Amino acid sequence: MSENKGRSLKSILKTSTTAGLAAMMLVTAAPFAAVPALAAPVEVNAPQVPSFGDVVQAVLPAVVSVRVQSNVQNTSSDESGYSFNFGGRSFEDLPDDHPLKRFFREFGGPGMENPRERGPRAERGEGRLRPTAQGSGFFISEDGYVVTNNHVIDDGSAFTIVMNDGKEYDAKLVGKDSRTDLALLKVDAKDVKFTYVKFADDEKVRVGDWVVAVGNPFGLGGTVTAGIISARGRNIGSGPYDDYLQIDAAVNRGNSGGPGFNLNGEVVGINTAIFSPSGGNVGIAFAIPASVATDVIAKLKETGTVSRGWLGVQIQPVTQDIADSLGLSEAAGALVVAPQAGSPGEEAGIKQGDVVTAVNGDPVKDPRDLARRIAAFAPDSTVDVALWRDGKATEVKVKLGELPAEQAASAETENNAAPAPEVEQELSSLGLSVRPADGGKGLAIVDVDPESDAADKGLKSGETITSVNNQEVSSAADVQKVLEQAKKDGRTRALFQVESENGSRFVALPINQG
Predict the structure, then answer these.
(1) Domain 425-510 homologous superfamily, CATH
(2) Which of 67, 116, 174, 311 has the fewest Cβ atoms within 10 angstroms?
(3) Can you say how many angstroms the Cα of residue 269 is from the centroid of all Cα atoms in its chain?
């Protein structure tokens, strides 16, 4: 303070303030001076997932939009104009207990999506047809053959192929096959060679392989999505030849008829349906395998139609219970419920209760496998059909017929016999009450013990037991006689044939239940 003696208070304050400001400037400026230069861009040195770009670049010119014109009104669509039938069957046609129908009922979905990829409904105006459907397709030859779905072009009267670059070409229908939902179109364009793709070797297609789907979802041509093959051999209830690939690539309305490619640019499947409660992609789509498409497309190209062999028998799966009742070592093959009158199977001697175990020496896994094997033969072919009958293996030769284009089954019967008396009889060991059926053929089920195995197997009052172990029965005593013989033969189950308003089926019931 001595140094400040004689200085005015104003002078002291001025000096102190100046020094304080200088110190503050030094304090606040120091951090700015220490800021380093800007950091370099982030770089991650990690393995890179292969791009689909090369595949897409190569195949995109071969994938087209298929525009369909028709003068047929859309009679099975929802209020938005989209239809829900494919392969000749609608969602409503599926059985009530079908897993797909149960799924959509539980989750409130409209049904099996994407079959007819519709925009506005068909209508005439100013003397012209207007577009009514749109899907996808792809070239399989440089001279203009285009593969698509049958449900995309069904009922169409004119077809336009729209290329990825926007060019349009008229096309004509070569042939179609509703059973596999495939169709073949042809573009006639002089001096034009189209980029085309080929089908993959189906034996090399594995679950888990990449698949790149290219198509026209919601009319947005040239859309590419990717995923993997989720499963093979899917049966979605669309017909006897169901053998779909399940893929999880995003597939939506408009993708129908479009290809799914492997990483070599080969077509592994043709998108035909999606599993969706909302109408959009949920990661479950179904594609026709290349092996099925190759055979069908070749026949359509040659003749415009597909002729298939026909055996003419009604069949059902062989469960383990049924196998035990028949003395089969494994639950495989196709159980003959009934041969159709006048069919090749009946004429060859195939009988109700036979199990078809092989065709030309190739084992039959199940009814779908048998249907596909028989259909692969041309009409008039002669095949060796191995059977399991009455506990023994036998074989018959069958000259196949041609599968009719449309088969109609009638449930109408004519019976003028007097009704049988209402005499109720007990099959207590089976938990059944029965009486002779009207006309004296079979036993009508009057009551079923809800705790019995028969109830668990779905037997209901009002149904009719027509045979046990392939022997006709008309009384409870007949049934007991067959069961006693089965016990002597060492069987633990007996095979009951049951008829209802939905048709005939076989059910295996235990014979030692008491």
Answers:
(1) PDZ domain (2.30.42.10)
(2) 174
(3) 12
Domain ranges of the chain: 51-306, 309-402, 425-510
| Fold annotation for 309-402 | Pdz3 Domain (2.30.42)
Residue 90 is a catalytic residue: no
Identify the weakest region by mean pLDDT among 16-20, 196-200, 299-303, 440-444. Answer: 16-20
- Comparison of pLDDT for 16 and 484, the residue scoring more: 484
β-pairing, 355-359 vs 362-363, is: antiparallel
51-306 classified as CATH 2.40.10.120: yes
143 is catalytic: no
User: Does 51-306 match 309-402 in CATH topology?
Assistant: no
Catalytic residue among 154, 181, 321, 354: 181
Q: Which of 70, 136, 151, 276 is catalytic?
A: 151
Cβ neighbours around 391 below 10 Å, total:
11
Is 324 considered catalytic here? no
Provide the whole-model pTM. 0.63
**In the predicted model, what is the mean pLDDT of the chain?**
78
Question: What span, in angstroms and rounded, lies between the C-alpha atoms of 290 and 331?
Answer: 29
| Under 8 Å between Cβ of 76 and 114 | no
d(CA 190, CA 188): 7
Confidence of residue 11 (pLDDT cuts 50, 70, 90): low
